[in-house]
Amino acid sequence: METAAEPRARRLFGGSARALGDLTANPFRADRDRIVGSPFFARLGGVTQVISPVGSGLLVHNRLTHSLKVAQVARAIAERLTGDGRWRDLLDKLGGCDPDVVEAAALAHDLGHPPFGHLGERVLDRLARQRLGLSDGFEGNAQSYRIVTSTEIRGAATTGLDLTAAVRAAMLKYPWTRLDHPDPHPRLLNPPPRGATPPPDDPESGSSKFGAYRTELDDLRQAREPFAGRIPDWQQTVEASVMDTADDIAYAIHDVEDFYRVGVLQQGAVSAELMAWQRESGHFRAITDAALATAARRPGAAIERLRRQLHRKDAWIADDDAFAAAVEHVREELVDGLLAMPFDGSIEAEQYVARFSARWSTRFVDAITVTDQPSVRSGYVLLGCAQWHEVQVLKFVHHRFVLARPDLALHQRGQARLLGTLVEALWEWLLDPEEESRLPRRLHDLVELAEAELHPRTSDRIGRARGRAIVDFVAQLTDGQAVAMLDALSGRSGALWTDAFVL
To answer: What does pTM read for this prediction?
Structure first.
């Protein structure tokens, strides 16, 4: 018969090499320390959040500062929930909500992000699937999970960071593989969970977002085993749901803050879009999708498309009154508030930004609730209806007035070309028999690791191992290292020894 301590032991140590030992210790804090001490975590300081920090001279968030802020928000949410007696029994029933677990998972959630942020993720996925023949492709969340379980070495007896099952499960925003786990696969649900639908350019390729490659499937199963029977196989744990919600909050607030600081977000453009929709919302709601498409450049049309998209994708929560109220609240806080005073680098301006961020963070954290019957497109932990709509409008402002800019597109097309050229150059290097002994040591080790993971009868086993090793290698570079390595491989760099740091 199972003792009372055994379910907790599985939650703590399932799939971990650590002995069960003293269950009164706090292994989750040890997990947090292992993550923060990893070179993969330090590397995030040189990886793009939205704008590459390389050579920009701009004080903007990178993946490291973003991860720290997600961890801060995640811990605040967890502490609020665990301190509220209304949720205690439900949280215990669903598997628990430990503030140290969600903080550790938040710190680790972006470890696998490649150079140049989401652009790099899309480029590496396309190259992995179409050029290197890897059916799993590349996915930043799956790469993070691979790092903590496979490619970060901590001594001869341990592969990965040897994290507890709870923290590994809390990292799984998308607790499925691209194609075949769990069965039935969540992309077949109607509607499917967020991220489970295939990419539009390749509908047969499986989910566009997923939490682990097939090489880490056994580890995923071990991490999730303590939650079997408590939550569906495709649903996030409570702690993963907290981390995911915190990521959304940090993204919505801090990316807007960044582009206000650097002068990209302009009061006039944002005001014209929001206020045009408010004045003419009745007209916009009445026109057809085709008529709306022909008016794409008209102020107000873009946010009307957002309203319709929310109804299509998230009918479980989309509400026109809440949407209109969110537009008004964002207009008051952002257009009439933050953007009304151009950022000039003064102490007063910094204090103004800090108050804006603190006000929104508090508003969102205080609106968090827990449900025992979430929508397929939601988790157990979620924002209130009003605040959920506000997050969508803030993210819209970022997408519309930053990500859609032609000057950013120009920059990103160059970065995409750089990554493609780098992957091709590394592939040619691996195929050169005369250069085998002079391969970068890390690349050589990654080939051996990938080969060991594949079944001996795998078709083109060596080719697949080389392809996965190249993807792992490039994904572990900072933006600056990727640029420097391509410069060296193309003969443009004259600094022989200083290029060695990328090897």
So the answer is: 0.90
